[in-house]
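Submission sheet (multi-component)
Chains listed below:
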Amino acid sequence: MRYALVLGAAALAVIALTQIGSTPATRPAPAPPVAAAAKVMPVRPRLPPRPGDAPPPAMDEPILPTATPEQRADIAERARGAARPGMTAFRAFSDLYVDGNLDLARRQAESEGLTLDQVRDLTSFGLMVLATQRVSDVEEIVGRSLTEEQRETLSALMISANGEFKEKLRALVAAGASEAERWKLIRSTQSEYLIDFYAATGMNDDLLDDLLAGNLNLPGAPASTQPPEGPVPPASPVDTDLHPERPR
Amino acid sequence: MKKLILSLVVLGTVAAGARAASASYYVEYFRDNLFAGLAYHRVGCMTDWTTIQSNQDYDGFTNNRYCNAGATAASVPNASWYTYEFLGDSFADAQNRLNSCGNNTNSSYGTPDYAASSNTCGYNIFTNCNSDCWIRYFSTCMGQTVGTISPCFGYHYP
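Outcome: structure written.
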């Protein structure tokens, strides 16, 4: 199985991850705060828009995050000798992603009544849950096709876990729960999701680590990747509105 | 006076009929926020602003279903609206454009038939291999790039 190489790639992951940010001088500087981002909430027009109508509000330009030497050292330290190299690499990239959107993360934390660390943790968990929904990858790792029933169970699991978590979290926050109580909910949700995911698919901790490490035969796998050669991504809008309202 | 009222009623009816007969089509974009963090799945649906017009999800990297023909366009299951693009008054032209850009994006990301996994790149939220980059490429192809937050390192269009 192509994922079998993953565990042996832990050292490679360390090397690769430490190279993040060793980028050409042409890349943008580290991200400045995006405090001015999108003050205007997109509003869905009541009536169907027509040509000539005001277009949807323009969004801010994206900011390409680059890792500082300190960040690279931190990533290397975390990956070095990790028991779960796939999870470690996956988390490192997730953290880079949050670091590249810190202002948005802070506003999300404020909006949900969370700490920044909790948003960081939940982002990684959300991305991991999305990874568990890649049925073809899961099937390859467990070595068999999932039945239609298993696929439906897996899909429903993400939806129900996500919905129930947000409902409980918002109830906790509304009730003035402490940070520790919120962490307790986060940890129990993560644990329960994995138990149900394993039961639905036949996956386990080791196989999940393979899934998160990615396919080493393809470019970009978290356990083996470094930023690909090529031009810096062109500017494009960044989605910074936490609660856009669709006009009636 | 009765004639005037009757005329107005008739005119109103004709105008309403004309409006109904000349539907316009849109791609509306929705995002599914996972666990209150910054993890999103993004998807485009074809709508006439009132209802979703096809079962085709314009997205990559998931098998989850969002666009259900006939359902209200104001929302899709488990996701919230965030922007749109006007596609004109021809259903066929709008759908052809969407499918053409869908196919282009699937080719670019190795996600044939909107597959949940790429056969050409390893999923990574930081690099050009995730659903944010997929929808960014797709929406750029459609003509109006939507907001995303993955840096999509290595992204290029086309």
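Remark: The longest strand of chain B covers residues 25-34.
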